[in-house]
Give the backbone structure.
Amino acid sequence: MRRKIVAGNWKMNNDLSETEALLNDLIAQMPSTHASVMVAPTFVNLFQAFTVLKGHDIEVIAQNMHQEENGAYTGEISAKMLKSVGVNTVILGHSERRAYFGETDELLVAKVNTALANDLEIVFCFGEELEDRTSGNHFSLVESQLRNALFHLDVADWKGIVLAYEPVWAIGTGETASPEQAQEMHAFIRKTIADKFGSEVGDEVSILYGGSVKPANAAEIFAKEDVDGGLIGGAALKAADFIAIINAI
Ligand SMILES: O=C(CO)COP(=O)(O)O
């Protein structure tokens, strides 16, 4: 059985007291669920997030990581630093990192390798821009993102990888892929992975959808066969919305 996951990517939101307040609200309202629930606060609040969530079934994950093990990289955060505060999972390849911080497929190969070498699990994000979809190029673009960043891996590496399909045109725009569009792409992604790494990897890999998921649309998206959960941005910043999305899985 593939793991179901609902993950909140808080992006550059919530200072320390807001982080504590949102986590305490989540604790207070947390339903019992078969899904793994994750939250990704900003780096500076990771340590405190673990403290607040101690004993609760919400995993704290990181939004990014530098590809080098250590060294003269002012302002950067290493895999080992994340591990040292308790992080076991890191988001890599988010479209905002690609668009605003110049992250390329080539750089992501290095980040993926460093994360796996440090026993970090990865939520690997990818997805097409609007112009790729309107020109009918979305499948080949997504295939190339997977091929360029992940096809060098071994079958065994896939135990530590979750995929997150996030069409760029649906992120923070209020525009959501229809459940049918999500299913069509997720099935394509699963087949792409199965063709390269075998059907066992294809069957087992969790594929999350991200892009304007909210309480009103989560259930119909999550109901699709190849959608194993969501990576939630804006709606993860309000406890009631995030809880409603967890309840939709
Ligand atoms: O980028 C996202 C999650 O990583 C999605 O963001 P929104 O849910 O705000 O569209």
Q: What stands out?
A: Residues 9, 94, 166, 171-172, 210-213, 231-235 surround 1,3-dihydroxyacetonephosphate (CB under 6 Å). The mean pLDDT is 97.
